[in-house]
Automatic annotation (TrEMBL):
<keyword id="KW-0067">ATP-binding</keyword>
<feature type="binding site">
    <location>
        <position position="179"/>
    </location>
    <ligand>
        <name>ATP</name>
    </ligand>
</feature>
<dbReference type="GO" id="GO:0005524">
    <property type="term" value="F:ATP binding"/>
</dbReference>
<keyword id="KW-0119">Carbohydrate metabolism</keyword>
<feature type="binding site">
    <location>
        <position position="272"/>
    </location>
    <ligand>
        <name>K(+)</name>
    </ligand>
</feature>
<dbReference type="InterPro" id="IPR029056">
    <property type="entry name" value="Ribokinase-like"/>
</dbReference>
<feature type="binding site">
    <location>
        <position position="233"/>
    </location>
    <ligand>
        <name>K(+)</name>
    </ligand>
</feature>
<keyword id="KW-0630">Potassium</keyword>
<feature type="binding site">
    <location>
        <position position="235"/>
    </location>
    <ligand>
        <name>K(+)</name>
    </ligand>
</feature>
<feature type="binding site">
    <location>
        <begin position="238"/>
        <end position="239"/>
    </location>
    <ligand>
        <name>ATP</name>
    </ligand>
</feature>
<feature type="binding site">
    <location>
        <begin position="38"/>
        <end position="42"/>
    </location>
    <ligand>
        <name>substrate</name>
    </ligand>
</feature>
<feature type="binding site">
    <location>
        <position position="239"/>
    </location>
    <ligand>
        <name>substrate</name>
    </ligand>
</feature>
<feature type="binding site">
    <location>
        <position position="269"/>
    </location>
    <ligand>
        <name>K(+)</name>
    </ligand>
</feature>
<feature type="domain" description="Carbohydrate kinase PfkB">
    <location>
        <begin position="6"/>
        <end position="281"/>
    </location>
</feature>
<dbReference type="GO" id="GO:0019303">
    <property type="term" value="P:D-ribose catabolic process"/>
</dbReference>
<dbReference type="InterPro" id="IPR002139">
    <property type="entry name" value="Ribo/fructo_kinase"/>
</dbReference>
<dbReference type="GO" id="GO:0005737">
    <property type="term" value="C:cytoplasm"/>
</dbReference>
Length: 296
């Protein structure tokens, strides 16, 4: 099957700093790198690196050809990425010595995609495919409705959190993933806890405490402990987790098994600097934390 991802494509400008800036503070960075990012691009790369067939639906500006090429190098089908006369999206990211980060987003072309481009992409989808989206593009609700009408399963990462966008998409989805802060924001906005939502599967990521899966069909809740690592950069860790979960489900894995694999992918990813370019492939994830059988 195929995962169709309506998602952002950004240039990530990553500044290494001693600590996250406080209001009014000026701080010299110790390093600067630029690479591929955006929640959408990160998730597409993660899906591809996890072995899924992934078609990215999105847009870049006149200067964004390098990002499209990079996605292709990682195995993402780029035929539905439009070149628009709008600057590409970009992010200014500061990463502190303890791995924590802060991010400023410029949406650019990510929020200028025409609905015709989404229709053209999903015209090639098949019943049973997955559709995935986040809150860094336009037309999420319209695209989710179209995907649902066509018999696709719909996944949604409710980030960056926006109450109006989430309210529009919630009735259309089968799978919801969000972090602990976003879950609290969602409950405040809707008055409904994750385990009471009319969504089949809800995953709340808990950072160093792991993840929690709400199976709302059965009413059960399962916790998954985090894998202890020393973080270098947490940028894109949640996106990596999401992509690996969706790729696992697309391959027919039970949810618990898909989450377990995604936990390992996210843990390995945060030991490396960068976003999309740091996402491990399936072989690396499967080998992570396994005993070295060549020894002894």
């Amino acid at each position: 099957m195929t995962i169709w991802n309506l998602g952002s494509i950004n240039a990530d400008h990553v500044y290494a700093v001693d600590h996250i800036l406080a209001p009014g503070e000026t701080l010299a960075a110790t390093d600067l790198t630029t690479g591929l990012g955006g929640k959408g691009a990160n998730m597409s790369v993660a899906c591809a690196r996890a072995g899924a067939r992934i078609g990215h639906i999105g847009a870049v500006g006149p200067e964004g050809g390098w990002a499209v090429d990079r996605l292709t190098e990682y195995g993402v089908d780029n035929r539905w990425i439009k070149r628009l006369d709008v600057p590409s999206g970009h992010a200014i990211i500061t990463v502190a010595e303890d791995g924590e980060n802060s991010i400023i987003l410029f949406p650019g072309a990510n929020r200028a995609l025409p609905i015709e481009a989404i229709r053209a992409a999903l015209a090639e989808a098949e019943v049973g495919d997955w559709f995935l989206t986040q809150n860094e593009t336009n037309l999420q609700a319209e695209a989710a409705a179209l995907a649902r009408e066509m018999g696709l399963k719909v996944g949604y990462a409710a980030a960056p959190f926006d109450a109006q966008s989430v309210a529009a998409v919630l009735p259309l989805i089968d799978f919801l993933i969000l972090n602990e802060v976003e879950a609290a924001q969602l409950e405040a906005a809707t008055g409904t806890a994750p385990g009471a939502l009319e969504v089949n599967d809800v995953i709340v990521t808990l950072g160093a405490d792991g993840a929690r899966w709400f199976d709302n069909r059965s009413g059960t809740v399962e916790d998954f402990p985090a894998i202890p690592v020393t973080p270098v950069d947490t940028t894109g860790a949640g996106d990596t987790f999401t992509g690996y979960v969706l790729a696992g489900l697309d391959r027919g894995m039970p949810m618990g098994q898909a989450i377990g694999l995604a936990m390992r992918a996210g843990a390995l990813m945060v030991t490396r600097p960068g976003a999309a370019d740091a996402i491990p492939d399936l072989a690396e994830v499967q080998a992570f934390l396994q005993p070295d059988r060549s020894q002894g």
